[in-house]
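Please fill in the sequence for the structure shown.

STRUCTURE ENCODING:
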């Protein structure tokens, strides 16, 4: 592969944005393993996981210039998670067309929770908190990663993960309260 192994993710992404395929290969080698593992936790179909992983890196190729910062982990996971949601929607649309597949089209409890996180009040509230806090919450709460795994994924110290998780919960509560104010002004 390319001679980019010593570069941080930000440098690799800048090289990808300039059309460097070797930098994309190095970025893939660096991140595809953990992305595959996380996608597999959310989707049991290995073919869908493979397609989502491929789509993720196609998106990285096309939009690397839009990434800011040195670490790419959270950004890559956001792309992969959105691609997985898109793939599931496509499967549901296909399943709705076939009567025998209707039972399979009923979303699981996990799918309903994830859809709520993506599109409901919680998703709206998540969009209102800062990206670094949102990354920590998604990794620890949605993906169920430990503090150590989250620290490794995001390239930050474990103590920073813990403090961001606390701040994220506080900011998320405040954002949810703004979305759904209690009619009496007290706790619901």
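FILLED IN BY: designer on duty
SEQUENCE:
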């Amino acid at each position: 592969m390319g001679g980019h192994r010593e570069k941080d993710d930000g440098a690799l992404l800048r090289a990808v944005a300039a059309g460097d395929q070797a930098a994309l290969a190095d970025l893939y080698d660096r991140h595809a393993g953990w992305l595959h593992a996380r996608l597999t936790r959310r989707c049991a179909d290995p073919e869908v996981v493979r397609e989502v992983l491929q789509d993720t890196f196609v998106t990285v190729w096309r939009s690397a210039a839009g990434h800011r910062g040195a670490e790419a982990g959270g950004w890559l996971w956001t792309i992969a998670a959105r691609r997985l949601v898109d793939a599931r929607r496509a499967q549901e649309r296909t399943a709705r067309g076939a009567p025998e597949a209707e039972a399979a089209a009923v979303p699981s409890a996990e799918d309903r929770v994830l859809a709520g996180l993506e599109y409901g009040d919680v998703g709206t509230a998540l969009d209102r908190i800062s990206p670094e806090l949102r990354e920590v919450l998604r990794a620890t709460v949605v993906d169920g990663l430990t503090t150590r795994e989250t620290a490794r994924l995001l390239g930050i110290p474990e103590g920073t993960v813990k403090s961001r998780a606390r701040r994220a919960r506080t900011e998320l509560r405040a954002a949810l309260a703004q979305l759904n104010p209690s009619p009496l002004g007290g706790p619901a």
